[in-house]
Design brief:
This protein has helices at residues 267-272, 278-281, 291-326; strands spanning 16-17, 30-34, 54-58, 61-63, 67-71, 78-83, 92-101, 110-116, 133-140, 153-160, 175-180, 191-198, 202-208, 216-222, 231-237, 244-257. The chain contains 3 helices and 16 strands. It is found in: Membrane.
C-alpha cells in the first residue's frame, strides 16, 4: 500500500507579507507572517529525500516537480500528508492549491483537509481516522445519499473525538457548514481553497475554480472554535470509483493585528518552527514608539559623553600641572 518517490531539494522560508491578496481586504489592520513549518511547495523534499516539516503515508506519491498525490485514479487507494508540528497560531490563513482529475465519468470518493489533535493515521474518513477531535473539511466527489444536493459537495465538521462521521449520508448529520462546488473537478484554472480563521470568532472558506483570482465564498461560520494545538493535514481515498487527488502547494500564514500587542504573530514560529503556545508566541515585544523619547535619550547620552570628556581633560591638566611644579 505504500508508494513514494523521493527526490530533489526542498527550500522552505518564512517571510513577512501584508494583507493584500490574502482575502483580508475587509481587515486592513491585519498583517501576516508566512509559516514555513506548515507550508509546502515543489520540490517538497530536502536533500535527505525527506521533509523536515511533513510526514507522508499510505498510498501517497510525491512527484517533486509537480504534486503530492494523496490517492491515485485506481480503486481502493488512500493516502495522507500531515504536519510534524502543531499549528499554534491564534489566527491563521491556509491557502491550498489542489487538483481533482481523472478520466472517467464516474468518480470518487474525495479528499479532506484537517486541523486535528490526531495525525498521520490511515482510516475510513477520506483516508484518515474517524472519531477525530478538531476540524475536518471534506471535499466529497461522490454522492451516497443526499437527495437534492449537487456534487462535488464540501462539508465542514467540528469533531468532538466521540462522534463518527456520517459517511452513509455524506456527512449530513455532522455538517456545520457546506456548499456545492461542481466546477472543482477537472477545472481549467488552478483550483484553490482559502481558509481564514480568527480564534473563536469565525472560520471562512473561499474557493477559486471559475477563473484566476475569482474567489467564491463557500461558508463563513461565526463562533467556530479550532483546538489551540492541532496538526494540519490532508488525506484522500478512492473506492470502487476513483480520481487523482493532488496537493500542489500549501501556504499557511499567521495573522496578527498591526501595531497591537494582543494579537501579534509569532516570528519564532515562522522562522524556526517553534512549537510554543500561541498565548506567548503571538505577542511581540513592545518598542519605544515616541520619537520625542528617543531624541531625549540621545541628547542625554550626548551630554553625559561630553561631561566625561571634560572631566578627563580637567583631570589630565591638573596632573600635568602638578608634575611640572614638582620639578
Amino acid at each position: 500500500m505504500v508508494g513514494r518517490t523521493w527526490t530533489s531539494l526542498c527550500l522552505l522560508a518564512g517571510s513577512w507579507t501584508g494583507a493584500r491578496g490574502l482575502g483580508l481586504e475587509e481587515h486592513p489592520d491585519i498583517k501576516a507572517i508566512s509559516l514555513r513549518t506548515h507550508s509546502l511547495e515543489p520540490p517538497y523534499l530536502d536533500s535527505d529525500m525527506q521533509s523536515r516539516w511533513w510526514d507522508f503515508g499510505g498510498d501517497c506519491i510525491v512527484r517533486t516537480d509537480q504534486y503530492i498525490r494523496l490517492a491515485s485514479d485506481k480503486a481502493s487507494r488512500d493516502g495522507w500528508l500531515f504536519s510534524r508540528v502543531p499549528l499554534t497560531a491564534t489566527n491563521w490563513e491556509v491557502t491550498v492549491e489542489f487538483k481533482i482529475h481523472g478520466q472517467g465519468n464516474l468518480f470518487g470518493d474525495g479528499f479532506a483537509m484537517w486541523l486535528t489533535k490526531q495525525r498521520s493515521q490511515s482510516g475510513p474518513v477520506f483516508g484518515s481516522v474517524d472519531n477525530f477531535e478538531g476540524l475536518g473539511v471534506f471535499f466529497d466527489t461522490y454522492k451516497n445519499n443526499r437527495p437534492g444536493t449537487v456534487f462535488p459537495y464540501i462539508v465542514a465538521m467540528n469533531g468532538d473525538g466521540k462522534t463518527p462521521y456520517d459517511k452513509d449520508n455524506d456527512g449530513k448529520a455532522n455538517e456545520v457548514a457546506g456548499c456545492s462546488a461542481r466546477g472543482i473537478r477537472n477545472s481549467q484554472v488552478p483550483t484553490k481553497a482559502r481558509f481564514t480563521y480568527f480564534q473563536e470568532q469565525s472560520l471562512k472558506l473561499e474557493l477559486q475554480y471559475k477563473a484566476d483570482d475569482e474567489w467564491t465564498e463557500c461558508f463563513d461560520v461565526p463562533g467556530f472554535k479550532v483546538p489551540p494545538v492541532a496538526y494540519l493535514g490532508f488525506s484522500a481515498e478512492t473506492g470502487e470509483l476513483s480520481d487523482n487527488f493532488d496537493i500542489i502547494s500549501v501556504k499557511t500564514q499567521n495573522l496578527y493585528k498591526h501595531n497591537t500587542g494582543s494579537n501579534n504573530a509569532a516570528a519564532a514560529n515562522s522562522g524556526k518552527g517553534s512549537t510554543t503556545s500561541s498565548s506567548s508566541s503571538d505577542k511581540l515585544p513592545k518598542t519605544e514608539s515616541s520619537g520625542g523619547g528617543s531624541w531625549t535619550w540621545f541628547f542625554m547620552k550626548f551630554v553625559l559623553f561630553g561631561l566625561a570628556l571634560t572631566g578627563a581633560w580637567v583631570g589630565n591638566t591638573i596632573y600635568r600641572t602638578r608634575q611640572r611644579d614638582r620639578f
